[in-house]
Amino acid sequence: MTSVQVSAQAKLNLALRILGRDDSGYHPLETLFLRIDLADEISIRLTDGERTVVCSKDVGPPETNLAYQAAEAYSVATGWPGGWDISVEKRIPVGSGLGGGSADAGAVLRGLNAMAPNPIRAPELLTIAATLGADVAFMASNIVFAFAEGYGEKLTELAPPPSRQVALAVPAFGLSSAEAYRWIDADRVARANRDRWDLSQLSWASLDSIVGNDFTPVVSRRHPEIFRLVDCLVRGGAVAAGMTGSGSAVFGLFEERPEEGAISLPVDAQLIWTSTSGRVVEPRLMG
């Protein structure tokens, strides 16, 4: 096979805790990752040596694109392929905390492995993924719902809850994770101790009660719009609402989609409807 198409599904952090810096100087985390149906679309075509990536939105030089870096990391680890042409149709808002770049990287790893003459095992694939970023191991896996710890690479698969409607409120600004972590340090809000969630009997009722994000207060202190967006979704009927990742997007969980106009957002914010996922979309080999 010489080409493949992959849906790079976005994720929600239903809950996210940032722990104090460890000896490496980084912050470990604990989070609940859940895939949603909103996805970028990735096409990969093998070449004789040329290495290119084209994105429908400007996300910087190709060499800094996580999709490109994922292909390069796979090639270095396995000795294959020699070249590739990657096309990324962006649908996940950039800088939103929905894991768009990580989803693209994970999709490239899964797509290349599906085409590979000698595919590697899942643990090896996730080891490559973990070198690319905190969310990439989850995005490169076939897991829908997981408890993640460490730097996001230690995954415990959980049974996904039934599908729910999700409203995404995306402000006009994006945020970088590096900036959000600097604010965590500046405000000294990282947790000193772990306080484990009870994951033994998960249901939407129990999940709704633990929706929360340690980034929310530090980001909202600099961008009060975040709190306003959460309030808009709750007023619109969300059972639970919160910020995902390091922001800037806010999600609302709905038992059913409300009537048109029930959610009133600021004029510069975008409303996107999607659903929580029940499966990981498999790569589609094209010939």
Write the layout of secondary structure elements.
Layout: E1 3-18, E2 29-46, E3 51-55, H1 66-78, E4 84-89, H2 100-115, H3 122-130, H4 136-140, E5 145-149, E6 154-157, E7 165-170, H5 177-187, H6 204-210, E8 212-213, H7 215-222, H8 225-235, E9 240-243, E10 250-254, E11 270-275, E12 284-285
Parallel strand pairs: 1-8, 3-4
Antiparallel strand pairs: 1-2, 1-12, 2-4, 2-5, 5-6, 7-10, 7-11, 9-10
Helix pairs in contact: 1-2
Biggest beta-sheet profile: 8 strands, mixed
Shape descriptor = globular
Contiguous helical run count: 8
Number of strands: 12
By CATH, the topology of the largest domain is Ribosomal Protein S5, domain 2
- Helix content range of the residues, please? 25-40%
Provide key terms for this protein.
alpha+beta, Ribosomal Protein S5, domain 2, Alpha-Beta Plaits, four-stranded antiparallel sheet
Question: Could you give a short description of this structure?
Answer:
The protein has 8 helices and 12 strands. The protein has 287 residues and is α+β, with helices and mostly antiparallel strands. It has 2 domains: 3-160, 2-Layer Sandwich (Ribosomal Protein S5, domain 2); 165-275, GHMP kinase, C-terminal domain (Alpha-Beta Plaits), CATH 3.30.70.
